[in-house]
Amino acid sequence: MTVEDETGETADPTVSPLAHFGAEVRLDRERLGMTREALGKEACCSYSLVAKIESGTQVPPLNFAEACDRVFPHANGRFVRLWPLALRWAFPPWFRRYVELEWTATSLHMFHPLLVPGIAQTEEYARTVLRAGRPVNLEDLVTARTERQRILEREKPTRLWLVLNEFVLRNTVGSETVMYEQLSHLRDLADKPPHVVQIVPTRTTNHIAASPFGLLSFGEGAADVVHVDGFPRGYLLADTDDVVAANDAYDLLKATALSPHESAEMIGSIMKDCYS
Prior knowledge:
By secondary structure, the chain is of the alpha/beta class. Helices cover 49% and strands 11% of the residues. It has two domains: 17-88, 434 Repressor (Amino-terminal Domain) (Orthogonal Bundle), CATH 1.10.260.40; 93-275, Endonuclease, Chain A. The protein has twelve helices and six strands. It has a six-stranded mixed β-sheet, with helices on both faces. α2 (36-42) crosses α3 and α7 (123-131) crosses α8.
């Protein structure tokens, strides 16, 4: 039998969107006379995760918000509408505007010389990368990073075009198992329209770009935006000259890289030779 403390304090709902989301969950759950354990069963998660979400200390996955809308009689989709606000709270303040733009983008063109970009990372690859920075909210960051990827799978998906140096495929992050799963995910992306993955082979020295960057495009004639990743923080560029320069650099990277078919074959070959 589970011992439940249903009378614990809930975080002040005015503190953050995350705290507000948790307070709303608790109010509706208690109004329905439902225990945390019962809600956890409906949402396919643990009692402790429900408690952390209600206290405003854990970012909820989207399927939790969907379960709340399904279980609570008068939710009317409220929790799914609140979920993006709660999710963005897990990111550093300087990154939240980027996440908002990414969510509405029609296409992403990304380059990284060293790592698989967050938008294409598996959960364990993301956890390994993020753990290296010793954050106090590791699991929140992992959830937030993997949930961003929903834009690639929705009814009208954001089109992702990735160009990576071959080093990314050989740069062991975590264990061989982690890398095998990550490269398998990359190969799946490469085989799944409308997404494209291209690899710049090591034999072709890449002097075009040393820093990771991305181009975000939007519908209805909205201007592109450039995101440059860096330390200690990334930044957004909207100046026309910067956007043109980034587009030119990306076109050159695509021309230097292997074709999408050849890139998928390279990913599969490195999976077999290095991580199986």
